[in-house]
Amino acid sequence: MGKAELDALARLLKDPDPNARLKACRLMADARDPQMLPLLREAYQDKDERVRKTAQRALAEFKAQHTGRRGGGFPISNRVLNVLLIVLTVVLVGSLAANGAVMFLLDDDDSEASDEEEITPRGEFIALLEERLGQVQTDAVNLRQELAHYEETGDVVCEASYNQLSSMGEMTAEQQQYADLAAEFNHMDAIVGVLWSHIFNWREICADNEAAVPSLAELDSLIGELGEIEAALETYKTLPDDPPGETPSPDGPQSDAESGNETGDETGSETGDGQEPPAEPDEVNPPADTTPPDDAEVPGEENNAGNANDAVG
After folding, report:
1. Contacts of 6 (CB under 8 A, 6+ apart)
2. Could you give the CA distance from residue 64 to residue 71 in angstroms, rounded to a whole number?
3. Is residue 19 exposed (0-12), middle (13-18) or buried (19+ Cβ within 10 Å)?
4. At 112, is the pLDDT very low, low, confident or very high (cuts 50, 70, 90)?
5. Could you give the angle at which helices 18-31 and 49-70 cross, rounded to 10 degrees?
6. For the purposes of burial, counting CB atoms within 10 Å of the CB of 31, is it exposed (0-12), middle (13-18) or buried (19 or more)?
7. 3-class SS letters over the chain
8. What is the pLDDT of residue 292?
9. Are residues 214 and 195 in contact, defined by beta-carbon separation less than 8 angstroms?
């Protein structure tokens, strides 16, 4: 399109009559000439809605043509898109399945590794119990001092700090292996529950709230039980570290006499002194009988008879 025509269309776009501007916009849209783009953009700002919509459609067509040329003219059919979608779906599902299988195998490996973990040695487990026992005893002694001061003076003094102990939880693998230590573990756990109920009530009293004053006698009883646990742990520390599952007795190893008696019982000995029982007589091969039969000839008997006959003759 020549410059004169472009100038004419530009003048029409400035015409006060909206119909004239609409006619010019339609001519520019039908021309499909890239030179019309500046004029169409100007028409897109027109006050008349019809002119604006016409210019908008023309600009959209120009944009579609421009995009189509740059795309290389490679249209993709719906069938191809469906095939691509199916392939991508299969790949995604396969990837998720493989990932799930890998995670399952990793979980199995982790569970096997956890099952194969070594049990805490008996000595270390006793040390853990002693550390816990020390914390419980500290809380009990601190509470007793403040309760004793309250009973003597009637003054509420709350200066002690506590270890904020909680229940020791369920039995662990160590407890299942060491039954004697498990008993002390559970005993201490029960004491912690009672002790902290007293500490809670005392704190309520410290905060000017109504609560039952903990019994000093009951607290002394708990402290005594903690002392018994401490003594038991000291006894267990002197015993050898047996393999897991073999819990040593607090009475110590058996003496040689006891083991000898057990050995005698197992071997069937009546004396139990470790000596072998006397041998039984040999019944299989009895000694030969040397007594001659009644009709057997005695050696030398004939000679004796002959000598007697000669003497008679």
Report:
1. 35, 36, 39
2. 10
3. exposed
4. low
5. 10
6. middle
7. CCHHHHHHHHHHHCCCCHHHHHHHHHHHHHHCCHHHHHHHHHHCCCCCHHHHHHHHHHHHHHHHHHHHHHCCCCCCCHHHHHHHHHHHHHHHHHHHHHHHHHHHHHHHHHHHHHHCCCCCCHHHHHHHHHHHHHHHHHHHHHHHHHHHHHHHHCCCCCCCCCCCCCCCCCCCHHHHHCHHHHHHHHHHHHHHHHHHHHHHHHHHHHCCCCCCCCCHHHHHHHHHHHHHHHHHHHHHHCCCCCCCCCCCCCCCCCCHHHHHHHHHHHHCCCCCCCCCCCCCCCCCCCCCCCCCCCCCCCCCHHHHHHHHHHHHC
8. 52
9. no
- Cβ atoms within 10 Å, residue 51: 23
Residue 308 makes CB contacts below 8 A (sequence gap 6+) with none
Total number of residues shown for the chain? 313
Q: How far apart are CA 70 and CA 68, in angstroms?
A: 6
Cα(58)–Cα(46) distance, rounded to whole angstroms? Answer: 14
Burial letters for 178-198: b for 16+ Cβ neighbours within 10 Å, e otherwise?
bebbbebbeebbebbeebbeb
pTM of the model: 0.41
Looking at 2.102.10.10, 3.40.1190.20, 1.25.10.10, 3.40.640.10, the CATH number of the domain 3-70 comes to 1.25.10.10
End-to-end CA distance of the chain: 192
pLDDT score recorded for residue 45: 85
Kindly list the domain boundaries of the chain, sorted by start residue.
3-70, 122-237
Minimal CA–CA distance to 202: which of 152, 266, 146?
146
What is the percent of the chain where pLDDT is above 70?
65
